[in-house]
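User: I'm preparing a small set of examples for a lab meeting where we compare how different chains pack in three dimensions. I only have the primary sequence for this one, and I'd like the structure in C-alpha cell form so I can line it up with the others. Please keep the answer compact; I'll paste it straight into my notes.
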Amino acid sequence: MSGTTDTQHKWTDVLGELAGASEELAVGQLITHDNFSLEDAMSALELMDPKMDPGMNAAQVRTYEERLHLKSVPSSSSLSVKEVIGVIDRLMTFQAMWIDGFPIANTLFSCMYLPTASEVLDDRVLSTFIPVLLSQCILIKAIIDTTGEEDDFFRGMYGFDFPEIDAKKAIAEMNKAENELANNSTKPIQDDPAKELEYRGALLARLRFAKAWFNTLSKLSTYDLAASLKALDVAKIQLEIINKNTSLGEVPEAVFESEIARRISIGHPRKIEPISFDKTFEYYQQTFRHFTVLVNLPETTKLEDMRWKATDLVDDGASILTRAAFMKLFHQDGKILGKEPIIDWLIRDAKDCACIPESYFKYDFVQEFVKIFGQVYTAYMTLSSWTKARRRRKIPALFREWAILSDGASRVDKQITEALKLQESSVYFILWVLDKSHQTMLSYLQIGFDLELYDEQEYLMIYWFMDTIHANRMQQHNFLLKYAQSKPEPPAARQGGKNKKIKKPVSKPSANVQITPTPYNLEISCEFELCRSTLRYLMALEMEDKLPKPQFRFGSAAKRFDVRFNAFYLVPGSTPTYVQYEQYQKDLAARKIHRPNDDYLTVAGESFKNTKAQLEKLINHPKGLPKWRQERYRAMLKVVITNSVYMMTVKAKKLHKSALHQPQFNFSVHPSYATINMVEKK
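Assistant: Understood. Below is the C-alpha cell output for the 682-residue chain.
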C-alpha cells in the first residue's frame, strides 16, 4: 500500500495473533505501553453508556452556579440531624475514595457545600466540619505532591480549587461547636428527647474525628510525631464510635450532584458510585494502622529496618497517602525524619552490613562518595515505597545507578589502600555497593511472583537465576566478614582527610580465620539456603519430567530467558559471567548427570533441614531482628517446614514417579517462595 511519501508500507492483518494472545491473559490482566496508559484505555468512548459517554444526558445536569441561581441547593440549616450525619459520612467516604485514586470532581466536589460554602452553609455543625475537611484535603494533597510521578492518584482539580482556609480559626470554631453540643447549650437538635443524647454523641464523634485526623496530618507534616501519634489515637477511638452509629444518618440527594462530571472536562468515568461505609471504615482503619507505623519511625535507627518498613507497608496495601508520608519522613531536605542527615544513617549501615571501620569515613574522598551513595539509596528507598508493579517497572533504571556507583566504590577502595598502605587491597566499598545491587536484583525477581508475571514453565529458571545471585552475594559477604574480622583496626585518620604517617603496613589477614556471622549475614544466608532448597526440590521434579516444559506461544524459551535477566548485567561483578540460556541448559544437564533423582530429593531434604536451623538461629539471635521483622522469616520457616513434610510424602509414596500426579505451587504462605505439593491431575 502506498502512503503519501515514496515509502512503501505493507499492512498485515494481526487480529488473529492478538486474539490468540488475549487468550493467555487472565481476567483483570491488561497489557499496557508507556504511551498508552490505563486512563487512555478507559477513555475509549462507549456511546449511549451513561457511565462512559460524557455527552449522554449532560443537559440534565446542573452546575454549581446554575443550581445556586435556581436555588436548588438546600441550606445546611434546613437539613435534619439525620441528614447532617449522612452528609458527613458521605464526605468521609468520598475523601477515602479520592485518596484511593478517584477524581476529586466525582467525589468530594460532587457535594454542593464544598465550592459554595459561604452561601449555603449556615448551620453550626457542617459550617465547622467542612472547613476542617478541606484543611485535611489540603494537607493530604501537599503530602502526596511530594512524591512526584505517581499513577495511583488524580492530581488534577478539574477547574476546582481548595479555598484559602485559616486552619487555626477553623479548629477554633469546631471547638466552640463541640462545646455547645457537649454542654447541651443549644436547643434540641431533633424531636425525640429519648434520642437527643444519642444524636449529639454521633455529631460529637464526627467533629472530634475530623479535628483529630487534621491534627494527625498537620503534626506529621511538621515532624512532630509524638503529637501526631496522640491525635491518631483520638481519631481511632472516634472512628469506632462513628462506625457504630452510621445507621442514624441518611444522605440528602439534593446536596450531591453525582453526575456533575458530565459538565466538566475530565477523564472517564463520568459517574462514580460511592462505596459503602463499611468499606470506608475499613479504609480508615487500615490507614490509621499504617500511620501508627509512620509515627513510630523514630524507634528505627537502621536503614535496613527503614527499607523493610517501607516494603511491609506496600505489601499490606498502604495507600499513596501513607507511602508519600513515609517518603516525606524518610527524606526531607537531606535529613531523615527531618532531623538526622542521611549520611549518618549510611555510615551506620556501612558498619552494620559491610563492616567498614568508622575511621575510614573521616577521609574527605570517602565522605564525598557516601553523599553520592545517599542519592542512589534515596532513589532505592523511593522505589521501595511504590506499588509493586510500578517499582518493578522502574528498578532496571536503578541498575545503571549501581553500576556507576560501583566504579566510584572501586576508586575509593584504591584510595583507602594507598592512604593506609594496606598490604591487601581494600574491598569494603565495592562489596557494600554490590550487596545493595544484589538486593535490588532479588527484589526485582521476587516481585514477579507477587505480580503473577511468571508462567509455571519459568519457575525453574527463575529460582536458578535467583540462586546464582544469592550464591554470589553470600560468597562476597563471607569474604567481606573474613576480611574484616582477620585484620586489626587501621590507624585513625585526622579529620579533614589528611592521614597520619604510618610506620608499618597493616598485616595481611590470615587465610584460616573463622568468621563469626552477624545478624545481617544470617539474613543473607537464610534467603540463600531457602532459594537453593527450593531449586533442588524443583530439580528433583524436573528429572522426572514433572515440571511444565518451557513452551511459549509467542517467542522462545531463550528469548524469555533474555527478557527476564538481561537488565542485570549492567552492574560489574554482580554475576560471574553473561549467563545465556544455553549455559543455563548446560548447567541443568550437568546436574542431572551428577545426581540421580532420589539423591536430589535427599539433598533437597537436607537443604531444607539446614535452612530451618539457620532460620531458627536468626529468629532467636540475641542481637537479632526486631519482632516485626521476624514475621517475614517466620513465614519462610513455615515454607521450609511445609515443603519438608511434602517431600517426605512424595518420597515415601513415590509421587514424583507417578504419572497421575503433578506439582501444585502455592504462594499463600510467602509471596516469592512456594510450597510445592504433588496432587492428582484433574
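A couple of notes for your slides: Residues 236 and 285 are 7 Å apart (CA to CA). The first strand starts at residue 335 and ends at 336.

User: Perfect, thanks.
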